[in-house]
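ARCHIVE CARD
Drawer: 12
Card no.: 0347
Subject: one protein chain, sequence and derived structure
Cross-reference: see card 0346
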Amino acid sequence: MRKIQMIATDIDFTLTDANLRLDTRAIEKIRALEAKGVKVILVSGRNLAATGSLAQLIGTCGLVAAENGGVIARYQRSIKILGRIENARAAFRMLKKRMGRKVVERADSRYGMRLSDVSLERSFEPEEARKILEESGMKVQLVDTGVSFQLLDAHVDKGYALVRLARLERLSTGRAAAIGDNYNDLDLFREAGYKIAVANAPEEVKEHADYVCRHAYGRGFLEAVAHIGL
């Protein structure tokens, strides 16, 4: 394994417990990593305000990818929107028309807190929605984060966001370790030099990992960091 210079980690169910409460031991570990010069990047489906605030409060370097990769930022300094929210909103209107009241927009999306995507409650069958999107020809994907569904430009994902963030730091993604728990982290795995799945990840995600933790959630994150020698 090449020396790891940065860690890209999901937040929900990776740095938290099963009730989405941050694991305080994971926070302390992240601060220790940053003190060693290892950059920790939060890569999440949450909006920029939430992801960036967590980066600041936890004590990371401030680099974040929010909205499933639709927005990247060096928090409180620069922001780059990678996905077009107009496309996501057009897809939302179409799904709402075709599927009716089953399609429910989440509050942060409804009140303008998202910059590149539309966030939906997990209140319908995603395959039905994906079929409608495919038939429409819209270049919009439906992403299941495990907490919500998100409509986002098809060319945008966590992996692409990691590549863009690595360029900002003039670092190679080959020196990045990715830690995740869900299907949307497979895109992150695609670009990272080393991939780790926590124990609560689905089997398909584990199959794409270089290492699968014995422990779940935040404790799994701690195991992942120990495994790569940090």
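Annotation on reverse: The mean pLDDT is 96. The longest strand covers residues 39-43.
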